[in-house]
Amino acid sequence: MASCRAFGFQNVYQQNNVTSIRCSSLAAVSKKNYNIALLPGDGIGPEVISVAKNVLNLAGSIEGIEFKFNEKLVGGAALDAVGVPLPEDTLTAVKQSDAILFGAIGGDATDTNQRHADIGIALLQLREGLKVFANLRPVSVLPQLVDASTLKKEVIEGVDLMVIRELTGGIYFGKPKGFGTNENGEEIGFNTEVYAAYEIDRIARIAFETARKRRGKLCSVDKANVLEASMLWRKRVMAIAEEYPDVELSHMYVDNAAMQLVRNPKQFDTIVTNNIFGDILSDQASMLTGSLGMLPSASLSESGPGLFEPIHGSAPDIAGQDKANPLATILSAAMLLKYGLGEVKAAERIELAVLDTLNRGFRTGDIWSAGNLLLNKLEITHEPNQYIHMQKLVGCKEIGEEVLKSVDTKTPASSSAP
Ligand SMILES: NC(=O)c1ccc[n+]([C@@H]2O[C@H](COP(=O)([O-])OP(=O)(O)OC[C@H]3O[C@@H](n4cnc5c(N)ncnc54)[C@H](O)[C@@H]3O)[C@@H](O)[C@H]2O)c1
């Protein structure tokens, strides 16, 4: 059965010194009509967004929710059309929306470094504009996909962790940054890793609250043996820990954390870390599940609309070929419902539909196990644990249609609750 816990989803936020569970507080003002800003972006972005939009629409309509979608340009698509990667019109629309569903942005191998940089700026500007400082990335190894991972089954079976990444500070935003010349006349490039205490405190509180709702263990990842910004990070996390005596706090250097994530990922419950370490570790953690194409994320601010997106990029190598796995985007739509709008039942309907689709054997190429016994031939079996041998390789559109069928037929447990 799918549920918040099945995907390890949790969410909290801090406002006026009162920490709340966002999804339940928003549920109280659930209005059933929502404006959703859709930003498909580039590469496989439009393919996965189109599928996720249909799933969101159907799950919503079954639960009596109406969506008004406002599709806007971002990334390379915007750069080509209007000369900037994040047009003013797009930023205004996202700020006025109830939540944002984002695909991916990025150029391809033929693009210059400058074009890659110009496009990449859009996402940073968007996060900054929306003030979404907390990025939640649940990583759960689903039993249906244990064989899709490159790691040994006994290492990854049962992994259920949450990476919480600080998203609007640190080296990606720190100043000074730029290019220059050193004392030997050589060209240099430089960036600044900088954190203020309040930035660490607010992400730490989100992490402690999240850990408290999970298994009560929080690991803070830093590089406090070398970096001053990490020394302050550790000091502030330890100070905030005094507010959460029930949560077991540990600290780990980022190099060790990278190693431990593949050696023994089950030791982790909730991980909190800065922007750049979180960027790298969450991609690494994603491979525990077998594919970037499975992982959703939520980026939340203190009060404005949340940004929901798959963690993968625009995948130019498979764009336009109907090969993309849309499940990460579909699961991001479920996070949008749950954490952005407080529509928990509709969210669970989608989560359940994804599990059901996988149980019925449908796989895109990235999660399809090579050596499958019945290649391209779907057979339904009632034998438990047999589904991994009964896979059908399908494209983005077809797996989307199968998810729609499951959305229609599967009822979340909470729907039947009194
Ligand atoms: N949030 C974002 O928009 C975002 C994130 C990361 C990278 N990017 C951009 O995307 C472009 C490509 O970057 P990259 O190749 O390093 O990362 P990527 O995530 O686009 O692709 C990495 C690999 O994973 C595969 N892959 C990714 N998503 C998949 C999916 N849904 N289904 C099946 N396979 C999938 C790709 O085919 C590729 O082989 C770059 O321009 C980069 O800057 C954007």
Write the layout of secondary structure elements.
Blueprint (H helix, E strand, L loop, with lengths): L12 E3 L2 E3 L1 H6 L5 E9 L3 H18 L3 E6 L4 H7 L5 H9 L2 E6 L8 H18 L3 E7 L12 H4 L3 E7 L11 E4 L5 E4 L6 H17 L3 E6 L5 H14 L6 E6 H10 L6 E4 L1 H12 L9 E5 L5 E5 L16 H15 L2 H16 L2 E2 L28 E2 L2 H14 L9
Parallel strand pairs: 3-4, 3-5, 5-14, 7-12, 10-11, 10-12, 15-16
Antiparallel strand pairs: 1-2, 6-7, 6-13, 8-9, 13-14
Helix pairs in contact: 2-11, 2-12, 2-13, 7-8, 9-10, 11-12, 12-13
The site of nicotinamide-adenine-dinucleotide (NAD) has 22 residues, from helix 5.
Question: What does it look like?
Answer:
Helix 2 (45-62) packs parallel to helix 13 (396-409). The strands form four sheets. The protein has a ten-stranded mixed β-sheet, with helices on both faces. The chain has two domains: 1-143 and 290-359, Isopropylmalate Dehydrogenase (3-Layer(aba) Sandwich), CATH 3.40.718.10; 150-288, 3-Layer(aba) Sandwich (Isopropylmalate Dehydrogenase), CATH 3.40.718. The chain has 418 residues and is of the alpha/beta class. The protein is built from 13 helices and 16 strands. The radius of gyration is 21 Å and the shape is globular. A hairpin with a 2-residue loop joins strand 1 and strand 2. The chain has helices at 22-27, 45-62, 76-82, 88-96, 113-130, 153-156, 197-213, 228-241, 254-263, 275-286, 327-341, 344-359, 396-409; strands at residues 13-15, 18-20, 33-41, 66-71, 99-104, 134-140, 160-166, 178-181, 187-190, 217-222, 248-253, 270-273, 296-300, 306-310, 362-363, 392-393. The model is unreliable at 1-29 and 373-388 (pLDDT under 50). It binds nicotinamide-adenine-dinucleotide. It comes from Artemisia annua (Sweet wormwood). GO terms for molecular function: 3-isopropylmalate dehydrogenase activity; magnesium ion binding; NAD binding. Its EC number is 1.1.1.85.
